[in-house]
Specification:
The complex is a heterodimer of chains A (155) and B (488). Helix content of chain A is 60%, strand content 17%. By secondary structure, chain A is of the alpha+beta class. Chain A has 2 domains: 2-82, no CATH class; 85-154. In chain A, strand 3 (128-133) and strand 4 (136-141) form a beta hairpin. The termini of chain A are far apart. The mean pLDDT of chain A is 87. Chain B has 3 domains: 3-79, Beta Barrel (Elongation Factor Tu (Ef-tu), domain 3); 83-356, 3-Layer(aba) Sandwich (Rossmann fold); 360-487, Up-down Bundle (Lysin). The model of chain B has no long low-confidence stretch (mean pLDDT 90). Chain B is built from 15 helices and 19 strands. Classes of the chains: A alpha+beta (155), B alpha/beta (488). The A-B interface holds A 132, 134-139, 144, 147 and B 1, 8-9, 12-15, 28-31.
Chain lengths: 155, 488
Amino acid sequence: MEKVLNKLIKEIITTEELNSILLEIDKIQREVFEKQNGSLSKIAKELENHQLENYLLELEKIYPKNPEEQFSSLEKLKKNLQIISQIRIQIAYPVSKAFLKNIVSWIEKETHKKLILDIILNPKIVGGAIIEYQGKYENFSLEKEIDKIIREKQI
Amino acid sequence: MNEFELYLEKNKEIGRVSAFFQSTAHISGLPTLRIGEMIITESGIKGIVHGLKKDLAETLMLDAKNLRAGESVARSGKLFEIPVNENLLGRIVNPLCQPIDNQGPIREKKIFKKLQKTAPPFIKRARIKQPLETGIMMVDLLVPIGEGQRELIIGDAKTGKTTLLLQSLLGQTKKGAICIYVGIRKKDIAIKLIEDYLKKQGVFSQTIIINTTPDDSTTLSYLAPYSGMTIAEYFKDKGKKVAIIFDDLSTHAKVYREISLLLKRPPGRNLYPGDIFHIHAALLERAGNFKDKEGETSITALPVAETLENDISGYIQTNLMAMTDGHIFFDINEFRKGKRPAINAFLSVSRVGNQTKTPIEREVAGWVRKKLLEYERTLELAQFGTELTEETQKTIELGKRMEVLFNQSPEAIIPHNLQIILIGLLISDFWGNKSTVTMEEDIDKILEVYNKKNNLPELGEEIKDIKDITHLLFLIKEMMHKIVQIVM
């Protein structure tokens, strides 16, 4: 179970993805509550997220025909996902998912922590990035550099 | 770059407004924030950190009307400060030292002073030795105040508390002191009346009025006394004597209660938070008589507390009594009887004022207190309608004359030396069988001559040398012809 959970968490890169998974889990919980038959395989087949699908199948194996336990396990999963630290990055233009994945794996390698990216598009910063993490703020934007040059020239 | 961006770049910390209600806000982020620090939002709204929780900071915002949830917040890295300079004199400002009197901006270079500071330690304090002359006989004789003392003015609304404060303010400014009046949730009309009185007396240029109206935010009202004290400390550091009036701290306590309840702090007695005593004590501790390089300087604090139907046993009222060096009690019953100022001398206390008095002043005060007490008791007995002995009638007559003597109009400031002379005249039975109306006229005449012509210049020196009442009566006898000429 832990392996499947780790894989699911590892797959999440951005807050957008996290939010969509949380919505999916809500939906699954609703169905589990309504049907009360303890069958998760049917629901799993309809899911787009492969890792979440695996998680549900694994859950069904552990708690077959036990909707109550399935429901509370999904609740625990939601809590586990909600506590993942986020790092907010402002960038000027959209970047590919592969690029974001590279960033996340680099951060994880450096910090030994699972982090997800809260990407905000802000064309005002021209280029580079503004990074916020747990109240810390670093401005690596091109806007700041341009401002600096303008100020120096004015002096 | 605006102020927010500058602080963000400087401190490299960012937070978000996670919730806000009225003038309080919860801020997440900003990991190294301190209590009392100034913060600024993306839209330029400033705030002050009031409390810190595990993941949140409780802040008091100066303008909560335009605040948005999720807005970015930067810390300033410094405690909340206000700009002060000498040009604040003669102005009416809000607690942020921004003028509210339509007289234009406050010019010249300003010094930024921290709003919340710890009180000076014991080692920097000096014994209170100088009397603070209010010019009100009842106060100066029976409840004397010393420079650097904290004396509570307590009483019902509309009993003449502000009048007494203004009279004492007048007496102080005439001696060159700086006076600061802090109004908490006072209506503009009340401030206008104070301004007019001070302007009429020609002392407005030595006064600063800090006011918040009932329409202002709770944060501003909460900060008003701290702002006043900070300005007082600025002038004290310049070697000037300062008198500060807080009108009134019971309203301030209500403001603080409002803030604490909004911040969901556990309510205590009368719903006030547990630290209500601390916040007022910490404020009033900043007043006192201090050692200076060139001698001594002082901040005399005159906080006001309002009561309801003479009930001085209220929570805030007793708190304030405990943290001050005495209190002057304005009795609504005395006020209804027509006594002005309506001070109840028997329920008023001055714990350090007596040490500023000379032996003759102490003896005169003792005599007055004794006679007043006799008068009160005799009046109570006289109510039963029994036939009064000659001695009892004399006591009542003397008591009535003392009442006339202690009844003062707001404009009448009786100098200290003259107060002793007037009591001397009373003891020597100067007014004999004259009516109380004639007595009132005589007092006015003597006061007028003393103030305008300074007809009794030698009085000051002579009063200093008087040892006891017998000596005083001898002096009165010597100057009798002069006084008779004045009242003729």
